[in-house]
Amino acid sequence: MTSLTALLTGLNTSGLDVALPGIVRHFDASAAQASWMILGYLLAGTVLLLVWGRLADLFGRCRLYVAGVAVFTLASVGCALAPDAWWLVLGRILQGVGASAVIANTTALLADAFPPERLPRALGVNATLISATQAAGPLLGGVLTKLQGWSGIFWTSGAAGLVACGWAVHVLRPDRGSGSSEKFDVAGALLSVLFLGGGALALTESGSRGWTSGPVLLSAAVSVSALLVFPLVQRRQRHPLVDPWLFRDRRRAMALLAAFLTAMSYFSVVLVMSLYLQTVERLDALTAGFQVMLMAVGAMLASPVAGRLATRRPARLLSSVGTATSALGIALLVLALSLGPPAPTGLVGLGLFLTGVGAGLFGVPNTGELMSLVPAHRRGIANGVRSMLQNAGYLISSVLALALVAGHVPSGGPAGGDVRSSVLAAPGGPDALVGQHRTALLVLLCLCLAATASSLLRGGAQRPVPPPDRTTAPSAPHRPAPPRTAPGSSGRTKGTE
């Protein structure tokens, strides 16, 4: 069931890229509208992850998961019936709201349903299906668009979402959350939305407007201000949105940092190589798409293997091998671009495949260990933080890659303009383009090596410290009682003489 909804959310990310030209033609949409059809979904899905994760811990994961599927389903139908472009943008934002509630709870539900020794395999199956969606999403989106028109993806998502919603109601056992008297941190939630939303908006708009434009500066200022105030508010809250306890264990902190850096390092590899193949080597979109699909195939094949190995090998070892494998794959891509153009096809394919294999090897053990180090009533917010960091890494990676490869992409970004024409118009001609793509890959390689270091720095096995009990009023610091002695004794204990 969780895999079905993961497929749905993935299809509406990768599959929509193929349907977007038809949508633009149907609505005669502007570049900004086309861009927000993509960005609205990603932004809404990122800024609310912390909120949904905490609400799930307090009021129950199952009911919030079902509500997320229901909102996603209704929003999909609304997108299919949209009368104009801005209504479709609104529907995409609502889809992102529902998808974020699903994503924030999927891993936590799996952690609740499976014992620790079986959890990695369950995560491996889930990750395999997500990778399969990334690989087949554009192809499936093209088939649906050809058969049913631009609305085919949305009608299919609505129908499948209805099935998933009914299945979830039938299969999931109702839960009441933590059952404690903890309150929801409204101030922390608002600040997190301002921080994440402002930062994401500034990043996405900086490419078309420039960093000195008024909207970008205002968004960045709001984001930075909220970030500075957020920890101060969290310290004063009895039940904070993000409990600082989550970061006090080195394994948890390094697992989260490694997830963020890994997302930043590998997510834009497909974007950079797709642009390179289409702009420098002049391949058509379908040929380039089949070539970069090797990365998703690698992740799809590696994820179940990682799930099996994670039951017998330390997460630190597997995750670090995974990031190192991705680093090797990106290094081969850098070498391939240095030998071209045209870059050796076999070397490009091997580099993409190894990058995907590394991502598959990293994700399952890293997520499994994080969930095993968090008690059940904290898994929602822990997975919310992990998902938020991962999505933020995706967004930063995309913006960074576009800035390095084609900082002058016209308004609307890749979705709203002719990227190939704009990139070919870059100063310096094709030789400069190859250097820009190689520089982008080198930056991603450095990020991947940093992720490897973070994964190694998590240390070996250690007993996690349980979260503090916040259901009662703070008490005075605990002081150990003096050792008991028998009446009439000197008060000395064994070993003190």
UniProtKB/TrEMBL annotation:
It comes from Streptomyces chromofuscus. Residues 459-497 are annotated as: Disordered. The chain crosses the membrane at residues 31-52, 64-83, 89-111, 123-144, 150-172, 184-204, 216-233, 254-276, 288-310, 317-340, 346-367, 388-409, 439-457. It is found in: Cell membrane. Residues 488-497 have a biased composition (Polar residues). Residues 1-463 form the Major facilitator superfamily (MFS) profile domain. Coiled coil: none annotated. One of its GO terms (cellular component) is plasma membrane. GO terms for molecular function: transmembrane transporter activity. One of its GO terms (biological process) is response to antibiotic. PANTHER family: MAJOR FACILITATOR SUPERFAMILY MULTIDRUG TRANSPORTER MFSC (PTHR42718). InterPro entries: MFS, MFS_dom, MFS_trans_sf. Keywords: Antibiotic resistance, Membrane, Transmembrane, Transmembrane helix, Transport. Gene3D superfamilies: MFS general substrate transporter like domains (1.20.1250.20), Multidrug resistance protein D (1.20.1720.10). This is Major facilitator family transporter. Its main location: membrane. The keyword GTP-binding does not apply. The lineage of its organism: Bacteria, Bacillati, Actinomycetota, Actinomycetes, Kitasatosporales. It is a multi-pass membrane protein.
